[in-house]
Structures
1.
Amino acid sequence: MEAKAQARFVRISPRKARAVVDLVRHKNLDEALSILRYTPHRAARLVAKVVNSAAANAENNYDLRWGNLYVERIYVDEGPVFKRVRPRARGRRYLIRKPTSHITVVVRERREG
């Protein structure tokens, strides 16, 4: 049985979030959360929230045990890009892109034996 959690429209670049997500793929839940706790990136806090949410979904909705869970799939997709304009010299403009991400975590219970 697997449980899923998603954080959509998170205001961080997908490229920056993927660097953090790659650290915890296929890790036990406790190990993944301790890695995220000591990772000095802003994305680590956001990813940790989604991992905790997926674990809570597994416990409450599917009666899975916290100690047996591991991160089966975790990935970051691109969300919409907010576009803002800054004035520049001689009446020109400069486009500022503010990317967003969708973070998805799937946890599964590890089979014994």
2.
Amino acid sequence: MINKKISKILVPLDGSKNSMRALEMAISMARQFRSTIIGAYSISIQPHSEFHGIGPMNKKLDNEIKKMMNKAKTLSAQNGIVFKEKLMRGDIGYNLIKLAHDKKENFNLIVMGSRGRSAIKELFLGSVSNYVIHSSKIPVLIVK
């Protein structure tokens, strides 16, 4: 009998329907394995601009992220799952892989949506999920 333990699940979140479905799938799996979920949000940093109206945009984005993470934390808690959040800045795919492979974190699985909120659509998978699938050394579950 195969006895593979999944104790820590990484769930990239961006507020899209697919990322929330991925969270729901991760919660279902976490209940079976008594796992912890880490919800990760990576803010893609754009090159510096002379545009000075960026302050209110950052505050609005911060509020959206807090609202989304609180929703994820509440949904997890309602199902008896410990949820922790991780916020990162920089290239989204790179940040997710770096976090997933961090020896201190010790993730067993990545559960993510097939597409996020990006404006550009890939043929089959979103560019971030495609990057994660091809770069990850741990199992990845893609949720549609």
3.
Amino acid sequence: MPTNDHIYNCYAPPPQEFVRGEGAYLYTESGEKYLDFIAGIAVNCLGHGNPTVLGALKDQADKVWHVSGMFRVPGAIALAEKYCAATFADKVFFTNSGAEAVECAIKTARRCQFVEGHPERFEILTSKGAFHGRTIATVNAGGNPKYMEGFGPEMPGFTNLPFGDMDAIKEAINETTAAILIEPVQGEGGVRTLDIQFLKDLRTLCDEHGLLLIYDEVQCGAGRTGKLFAHQWADGEADPDIMAVAKGMGGGFPLGACLSTERAAAGMVPGTHGSTYGGNPLAAAVGNAVFDELTKPELMENVVKISNYMTQQFEALKDAHPDVVLDVRGKGLMCGLKLKKKALDVRNLAREHKLLVGNAGDNVLRMVPPLIISEEHVREAIAILDEVFTKAKDMDDFEA
């Protein structure tokens, strides 16, 4: 087997090498079959090998791959129109990743305050436990010391506050505050969910103080909660001014976007921002196919139905394994189990039993499966977790 010797040691991948995927499963060269409940970290929303998305990619590959933002890309124009019609947004900037989408959101907010005559407003209020990407700006926005260590002095312009603490947010607002940046459902922070009323109150607060509300729905968007975007459960009463999206919107192809109102994007004129690959013809073709699938009512109905069933099964696991499971978390098919045992060790043991899951902050076992899963897939996963938790219960090495 080839080694990882010439790849940065930023990851520590297990020995499995997946060569093929179909639906909710991944396969190794030798034919071993794994149930995929991490989906590339909430990316493969339609599962592996979706024929509609694959067909769109192949069709575009025969035409043109790349022209850059110097020229009009019909597919990107069409995709932007779809997202604007389906959300609060009037404008879209396409990126290759979630971190780039958040970077664009930060620049858009600060630039908006600048062109509206408030250059002193540059500070962005963020939340502890947040994850907004791995660039210098986005790790500073997230505020996690582990991700910031060794990369120079702390960057000014971000104030990190307790997650879900409205009083702390109100107290932190001052004459330099430009925007509030928050994930409606935290992923890396431990699958923690904000109440819909909290989002509505944030919207009101921003309006009262002339601030911009930015959502990071890179992980909790793209249909993961049963709506196209998590904040849409508020029925228009908590819409942001700017939103960063990615992961599932490309269904596995690198694609992200910053969505914005006309007002917020008014200052983003030629020369203020750019992306060589963002919104290229291949990404746009895939993005259109994924959007069309995500906006089919039956898919979102499946997410709601299966997530309710999965939550019930997780609660049963919690009752059956009180020495392992502390709490059930999440919204839709963005699920978490806070454990008494080491989540990383439990994740690895699950992989030995052919179930792929993740782990997140606050010692949480994280599951973000493809949105196309069935009750049968859930039962298969629950059976594996039941066996894994039974083994972990009696293993001292798994103590958190």
